[in-house]
């Protein structure tokens, strides 16, 4: 459009090109020649004929190449050459010749000599002269496919019908608000304060014994002091309020959690009671004042949580609550308020629009499920004179964010007085197409927090609202009372209400600021919305790597850069196989929402997976765009997804896909988009302005002929879609168009610029682009030769356009730009052979050793160690250990202590260290033999797993970590009696003793060790660690038994600094004193807690047991398909691998991901431990493969199912269903700690039908183990390979647990068969989504390990599968699992907790066990000191 109007341009204007087709040919040499030759042939037929005949023999005779021939003859024979070309065009063969001449001109210029440049100039001058004389443009290709016939101006669409019943309040309020200004009540809280209520007023009769303080929980007063609330309601009604609010500002489970009243039944009671009380008041008023109409607004407050602001300064992506939790709380409140009879909902005091969107989402869901609508008022809060909400939105952005809900009225309340609020109400009144209201504070608070503004003064501040016609309703917020409402009514009564008006029909989006898109139809390129592409994993490799690496701050920097470079909207996409979409999308959007520099613009939540889209929407407080949905899964799924998006209030991108696939031709694009449009506007109720079509920008220049017209089809389809779908927008991923030329910047970017130039002329509104490049690459500034070739491809102007483009592209510097094209070699890029830095193998031997230790590389360590030994710098072999090896290990220790190395890395370092030391040992032994000297170390540590416990993985890890830090570790082994441990300490002159244990009996044995150390008058520090240990137990049970230092160590990473400090003479005593003081405080806290805790007597607990209605069909016991025992031997390991829960595996290695990357497999994406976790996992997979291939581990198991009944707290097991012979008995323990709720006091016997019911029930038991791992661990021990030794034990443990999971599935589906139709994936199994439980003896539901003996005896476990019990009830082999099976739907896991001496006595009698022995086994759960 900016070119001079010449003959070619006039021809295009006259309609020679198709509708919407760009011309651009007047700048093309090819087009000029075409035009010139056609005219020359018509005017000079004879010269043309002569020229054609004369030229043919010339070409033949010369034998010259075509380029050389033309170069020598083109100038002198210009006229006949032109004639020849004209004749060729006339005969239909001109295109080939034209292409050759065009190539010639480029090559002439490429020779860069005066002569060749002059030749090229004369050709161009001659052809330009012909163009100026005569011109006949060549028509561009038409779009493919037949377009639908549409009569008149376009199709007619039916208006959307909601289908929900509207309450009478709609018409009543509409009539009143058109007639006069309505009045809303004042501040409930201010009036309650005047009553000076005390704690007892808030408790009433219902909450007398409630655990938490309730004073200040004003909502509760509708239950405990309804007289107070009723009096306040009545006072506001008498003052003239037309609308009174329920006293439910904090009426959600979220807000009530502050008072420990977040139970749904309590919150429901608050809301229904409040609504009924308010309705009672309005009914009484209307009865006393016939003809008056009063309304009750169900007050829905903002909650005490925010969806858009992090509760942590350090972690801006963190949220204290989720959208779903907020929406559910609001939904429950809405249900209860409606049940109580409210006339309308008031979503008020919105400081975070994210919360408001959740409330509106919940209300829409409620309306749809209830089948009725009542009016919704929405009121935001401007926190200060910045004009923004607390979460940063302007009030117009706030309106854009909530307008989709079509509120009956929109307004502002709180924070400001009337004077300060007026400008914001004026703005809201301008941009909103519904009724407008406000209820400001009584001025600003005074120094003491009170409000001094009286009613008449406030009324005068409100008067300008009425004079300027800004409002339809007015009320009061903080500091206002009936006197304020009465004064405002008296003032405003004579003013007319604001007239509700329409607003411009445009697309309205928002971030923190509004984006109201008003396209310039005459120049769409000038209003084109740039959607930043670089926060899309497909649009930026740097961004993708940042997300995969967990570097979200770096990714956020890319977002900031795009916004600063001019992006109007930010596209966010996480669709990649290496990225878990939902947590990544959630974390990143939350992070961006917290950054005002980025979140000022709207977001486009982009994913092909709808659940990821939903995750992103729920994090946005503004009105975003969803990209995308389509018809490819059919209309039902399309409606479902579109309805959900509409409920969220987002705009939507619709891709041109349907059940048949992707639209490629113009006709397909138009057909699919018009079909989708009709569904969206007629059936879903979408605002046409919020519908954005992406008709698929497909790649051109691929070399496939069927792709050549893709750009033309998109351009033509754009104009047709805009014509047939009024109000819609058109977008697309612009970079797709030039995907064939990726890597060649000038060509790719020229394609983008040219495509946008033509597509915007056809009506394209927005696109996913690189904003900076789009602004830099102005169409008119693109290199003309490059543009000519680009548009030949883009507009499909000649058959060999792609080949010519490729040839030309190959001559360009791929890093130049389309506005500053450089040929290859034009500039000196500097030396290409950069000097690489030294590799680590080029370092000194000391540094090589250090590097190998840090990286865990053992390939060269023996050679490097030997080089150091013979270097002459280390007189003795021991000096190599004390020097470079220990220096390297000290670096490892420092890195580990700083959290920069992780446990698997440290163990690999230890492996390298051992290999090096192993090489030196013969030399050291020889040196020792000669000198008699012994090596020094940082200290000697005795490590042992105590008697009765066979678990040693944790102990081994601690041993390795300490060894890495130059401590000499004496591993005494497992199942160690106290004598063995203490004798070893004396023998080795130990500096520290470390005790480990996994099962609860280990705790008692640790107490015994401490007692014996005291008896021996030892002073060696005692370390306590292991899965069942705790700081509290250490302080209360172990520390008092030993006068020396006792220290609880949480995990291996803490062991090094603890031992170092204990052995540091300068700091040891201070550390010991500090620990002792801590433990004294913990003991005081523990015993104080025991005194405060109330325990019911056993009979009372038994009377409050879980009651099961055994007559109900769902509770009827299912008879097992196979009774008795079934043995499993040599069960295939490969069949249980899918059932492995890898989370405990990573816990063994002390690798813990942080939210949202806790647990497997998310841990791999954790920015701190993810890389090491992946390495560890890969090595585990390799070992697992070896175990399977070599059949190293044999999985064995046994299952037993028997008739059973409960008798009191015990379970009797019978030989058969006659129940005549008792073959076994399982003893239960019952909860005794008093509960604040009516929850039952549980015992495992509750899950089995009592004998006196006459119902035969059933119980199961199982045991399984992973046999054979000892052979593998011995192999690694012999090789000194602690890393793989621990790995093998950890894998065996996981296989045993996985086999237990698999056995339970087999039992449920086959052996017992009570869930034959169960279809759960492994993830569901690990989340215990199946029916039934398998509690283990020694765990919370039955904490007594001796119950294992009953299982072993009942099923002959030792004889059948070789599993044994130690005297402390530990299972052998260590990788073993056992437990009971309960099948009933009522069965669930629970914790018995502490029990009293009364129950211990009862239990000992039932077990036929001395009380002292029962106390020994139950010691950790006793509420008394025996």
Structure description:
By secondary structure, this protein is an alpha/beta fold. The protein is built from 53 helices and 35 strands. The strands form eight sheets. An eight-stranded parallel sheet has the order 2-10-9-8-7-5-4-3, sandwiched between helices. It is globular and about 100 Å long. It starts with 6 loop residues before the first helix and ends in an 8-residue tail after the last helix.
Task: Map the helices and strands.
Blueprint lengths: L6 H7 L15 H15 L1 H18 L3 H8 L4 H13 L3 H18 L2 H20 L31 E2 L1 H12 L2 E2 L4 H6 L5 H5 L17 H4 L1 H14 L3 E3 L7 H4 L7 H25 L6 E6 L22 H18 L3 E7 L2 H18 L1 E2 L2 E5 L14 H8 L6 E9 H14 L3 E7 L13 H13 L5 E2 L7 H11 L14 E4 L3 E4 L11 E4 L8 H8 L3 H13 L4 E5 L7 H13 L2 H4 L3 E4 L3 H8 L7 E5 L5 H14 L2 E5 L1 E2 L2 E2 L3 H19 L6 E4 L15 H15 L4 E2 L14 H18 L3 E4 L1 H6 L7 H11 L6 H9 L35 H11 L5 H9 L7 H21 L5 H29 L8 E7 L6 H12 L3 E9 L1 H10 L4 E5 L4 H15 L6 E4 L5 H8 L7 E3 L3 H11 L5 H25 L5 H6 L20 E8 L1 H4 L6 H6 L21 H20 L4 E14 L2 E5 L7 E6 L29 E11 L1 H10 L3 H30 ...
Parallel strand pairs: 1-6, 2-10, 3-4, 4-5, 5-7, 7-8, 8-9, 9-10, 13-14, 13-22, 14-15, 15-16, 16-17, 17-20, 20-21, 23-24, 23-25, 25-26, 26-27
Antiparallel strand pairs: 11-12, 18-19, 28-29, 29-30, 29-32, 30-31, 32-35, 33-34
Oligomer: single chain
Mean of all residue-level pLDDT scores: 85
Approximate helicity band = 40-55%
Uncertain segments: 1-42, 52-80, 82-100, 127-140, 828-838
Radius of gyration: 41 Å
Largest sheet: 8 strands, parallel
Termini separation comes to 97 Å
> How many DSSP E strands?
35
Overall 3D geometry? Answer: globular
Number of helices: 53
Widest beta sheet: strand line-up: 2-10-9-8-7-5-4-3
Give me the secondary-structure category. alpha/beta
What portion of residues belong to β-strands? 5-15%
């Amino acid at each position: 459009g900016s070119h001079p109007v010449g003959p070619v341009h006039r021809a295009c204007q006259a309609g020679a090109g198709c509708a919407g087709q760009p011309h651009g040919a007047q700048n093309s040499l090819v087009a000029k020649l075409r035009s010139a030759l056609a005219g020359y042939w018509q005017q000079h037929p004879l010269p043309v004929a002569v020229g054609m005949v004369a030229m043919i023999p010339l070409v033949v005779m010369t034998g010259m190449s075509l380029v050389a021939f033309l170069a020598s003859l083109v100038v002198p024979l210009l006229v006949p050459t032109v004639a020849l070309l004209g004749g060729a065009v006339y005969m239909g063969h001109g295109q080939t010749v034209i292409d050759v001449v065009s190539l010639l001109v480029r090559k002439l210029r490429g020779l860069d000599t005066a002569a060749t440049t002059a030749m090229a100039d004369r050709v161009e001058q001659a052809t330009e002269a012909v163009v100026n004389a005569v011109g006949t443009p060549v028509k561009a290709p038409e779009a493919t496919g037949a377009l639908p016939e549409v009569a008149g101006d376009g199709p007619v669409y039916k208006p959307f019908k909601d289908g929900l019943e509207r309450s009478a309040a709609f018409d009543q309020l509409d009539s009143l608000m058109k007639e006069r200004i309505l009045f809303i009540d004042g501040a409930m809280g201010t009036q309650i304060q005047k009553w000076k209520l005390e704690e007892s007023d808030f408790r009433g009769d219902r909450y007398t014994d409630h655990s938490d303080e309730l004073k200040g929980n004003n909502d509760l007063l509708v239950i405990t002091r309804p007289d107070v609330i009723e009096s306040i309601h009545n006072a506001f009604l008498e003052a003239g309020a037309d609308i009174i609010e329920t006293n439910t500002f904090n009426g959600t489970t979220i807000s009530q959690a502050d008072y420990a009243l977040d139970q749904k039944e309590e919150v429901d009671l608050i809301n229904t009671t409040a609504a009924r009380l308010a309705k009672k008041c309005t009914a009484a008023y209307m009865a006393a004042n016939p003809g008056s109409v009063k309304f009750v607004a169900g007050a829905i407050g903002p909650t005490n949580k925010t969806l858009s602001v992090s509760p942590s300064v350090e972690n801006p992506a963190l949220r204290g609550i989720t959208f779903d939790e907020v929406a559910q709380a609001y939904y429950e409140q809405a249900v209860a308020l409606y049940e109580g009879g409210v006339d309308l909902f008031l979503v008020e005091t919105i400081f975070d629009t994210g919360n408001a969107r959740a409330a509106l989402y919940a209300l829409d869901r409620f309306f749809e499920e209830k089948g009725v609508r009542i009016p919704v008022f929405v009121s935001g809060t401007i926190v200060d004179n910045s004009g923004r909400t607390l979460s940063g939105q302007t009030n117009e952005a706030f309106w854009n964010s909530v307008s989709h809900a079509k509120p009956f009225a929109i307004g502002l309340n709180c924070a400001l007085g009337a004077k300060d609020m007026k400008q914001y109400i004026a703005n809201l009144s301008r941009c909103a197409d519904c009724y407008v209201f406000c209820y400001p504070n009584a001025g600003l608070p005074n120094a003491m927090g009170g409000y001094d503004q009286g009613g008449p003064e406030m009324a005068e501040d409100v008067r300008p609202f009425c004079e300027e016609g800004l409002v339809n309703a007015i009320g009061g917020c903080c500091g206002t009372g009936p006197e304020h409402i009465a004064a405002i009514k008296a003032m405003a009564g004579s003013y007319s209400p604001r007239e509700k008006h329409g607003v411009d029909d445009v697309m309205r989006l928002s971030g923190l600021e509004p984006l109201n898109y008003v396209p310039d139809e005459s120049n769409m390129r000038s209003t084109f919305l740039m959607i930043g592409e670089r926060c899309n994993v497909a649009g930026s490799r740097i961004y993708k790597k940042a997300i995969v690496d967990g570097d979200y701050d770096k990714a956020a920097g890319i977002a900031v850069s795009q916004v600063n470079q001019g992006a109007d909207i930010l596209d966010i996409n996480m669709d990649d196989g290496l990225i878990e979409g939902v947590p990544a999308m959630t974390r990143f959007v939350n992070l961006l929402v917290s950054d005002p520099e980025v979140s000022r613009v709207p977001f486009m939540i982009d994913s092909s997976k709808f659940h990821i889209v939903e995750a992103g929407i729920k994090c946005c407080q503004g009105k975003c765009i969803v990209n995308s949905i389509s018809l490819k899964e059919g209309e039902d799924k399309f409606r479902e997804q579109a309805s959900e998006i509409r409920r969220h209030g987002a705009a939507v991108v619709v891709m041109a896909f349907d059940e048949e696939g992707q639209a490629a031709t113009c006709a397909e694009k138009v057909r699919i988009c018009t079909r989708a449009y009709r569904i969206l506007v007629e059936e879903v109720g979408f605002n046409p302005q919020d519908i954005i079509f992406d008709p698929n920008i497909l790649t051109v220049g691929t070399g496939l002929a069927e792709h050549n017209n893709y750009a033309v089809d998109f351009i033509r389809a754009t104009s047709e879609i805009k014509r047939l779908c009024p109000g819609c927008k058109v977008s697309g991923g612009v970079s797709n168009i030039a995907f064939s030329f990726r890597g060649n910047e000038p060509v790719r970017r020229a394609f983008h610029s040219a495509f946008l130039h033509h597509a915007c002329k056809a009506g394209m509104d927005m696109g996913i682009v690189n904003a900076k490049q789009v602004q830099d690459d102005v169409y008119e500034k693109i290199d003309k030769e490059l543009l000519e070739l680009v548009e030949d491809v883009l507009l499909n102007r000649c058959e060999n356009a792609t080949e010519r483009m490729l040839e030309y592209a190959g001559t360009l510097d791929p890093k130049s730009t389309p506005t500053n094209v450089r040929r290859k070699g034009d500039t000196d890029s500097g030396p290409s052979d950069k000097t690489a830095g030294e590799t680590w193998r080029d370092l000194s031997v000391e540094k090589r050793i250090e590097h190998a230790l840090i990286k865990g590389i053992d390939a060269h360590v023996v050679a490097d160690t030997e080089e150091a030994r013979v270097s002459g710098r280390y007189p003795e072999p021991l000096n190599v250990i004390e020097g470079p090896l220990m220096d390297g290990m000290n670096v490892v220790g420092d890195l580990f202590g700083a959290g920069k190395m992780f446990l698997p890395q440290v163990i690999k370092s230890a492996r390298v260290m051992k290999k090096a030391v192993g090489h030196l040992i013969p030399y050291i032994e020889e040196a020792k033999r000669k000198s008699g000297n012994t090596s020094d170390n940082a200290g000697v540590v005795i490590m042992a797993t105590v008697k009765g416990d066979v678990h040693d993985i944790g102990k081994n890890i601690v041993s390795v970590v300490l060894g890495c830090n130059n401590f000499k570790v004496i591993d005494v082994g497992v199942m160690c009696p106290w004598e063995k441990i203490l004798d070893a300490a004396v023998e080795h002159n130990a500096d520290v003793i470390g005790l480990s244990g996994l099962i609860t009996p280990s705790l008692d044995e640790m107490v015994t060790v401490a007692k014996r150390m005291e008896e021996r008058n030892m002073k060696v520090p005692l370390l306590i660690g292991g899965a069942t240990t705790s700081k509290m137990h250490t302080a209360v049970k172990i520390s008092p038994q030993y006068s020396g230092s006792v220290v609880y160590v949480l995990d291996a990473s803490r062991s090094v600094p603890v031992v170092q400090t204990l052995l540091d003479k300068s700091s040891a005593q201070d550390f010991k004193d500090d620990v002792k003081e801590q433990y004294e405080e913990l003991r005081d806290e523990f015993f104080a807690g025991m005194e405060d805790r109330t325990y019911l007597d056993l009979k009372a607990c038994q009377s409050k047991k879980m009651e099961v209605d055994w007559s109900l069909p769902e509770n009827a016991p299912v008879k097992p398909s196979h009774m008795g025992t079934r043995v499993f031997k040599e069960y295939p390991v490969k069949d249980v691998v899918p059932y492995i829960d890898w989370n405990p595996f990573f816990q063994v290695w002390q690798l813990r991901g942080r939210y949202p990357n806790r647990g497997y497999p998310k841990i791999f994406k954790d920015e701190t431990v993810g890389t090491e976790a992946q390495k560890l996992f890969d090595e585990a997979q390799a070992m697992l493969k070896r175990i399977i291939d070599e059949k190293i581990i044999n999985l064995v198991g046994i299952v037993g199912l028997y008739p059973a009944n409960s008798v009191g707290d015990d379970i009797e097991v019978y030989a058969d269903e006659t129940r005549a012979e008792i073959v076994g008995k399982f003893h239960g323990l019952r909860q005794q700690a008093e509960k604040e709720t009516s929850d039952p006091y549980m015992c495992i016997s509750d899950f089995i039908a009592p004998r006196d019911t006459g119902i035969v029930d059933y119980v199961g038991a199982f045991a399984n183990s992973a046999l054979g791992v000892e052979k593998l661990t011995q192999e690694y021990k012999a090789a000194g390979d602690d890393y793989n030794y621990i790995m093998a034990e950890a894998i065996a443990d996981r296989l045993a647990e996985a086999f237990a999971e698999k056995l339970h599935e087999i039992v449920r589906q086959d052996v017992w068969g009570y869930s034959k139709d169960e279809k759960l994936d492994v993830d569901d199994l690990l989340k215990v989504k199946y029916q039934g439980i398998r509690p283990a003896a020694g765990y919370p539901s039955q904490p007594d390990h001796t119950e294992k003996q009953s299982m072993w005896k009942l099923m002959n476990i030792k004889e059948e599968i070789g599993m044994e019990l130690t005297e402390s009830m530990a299972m052998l082999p260590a990788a073993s699992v056992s437990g009971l099976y309960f099948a009933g739907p009522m069965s669930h896991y629970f914790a018995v907790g502490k029990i009293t001496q009364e129950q211990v006595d009862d239990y000992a009698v039932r077990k036929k066990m001395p009380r002292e022995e029962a106390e020994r086994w139950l010691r950790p759960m006793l509420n008394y000191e025996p």
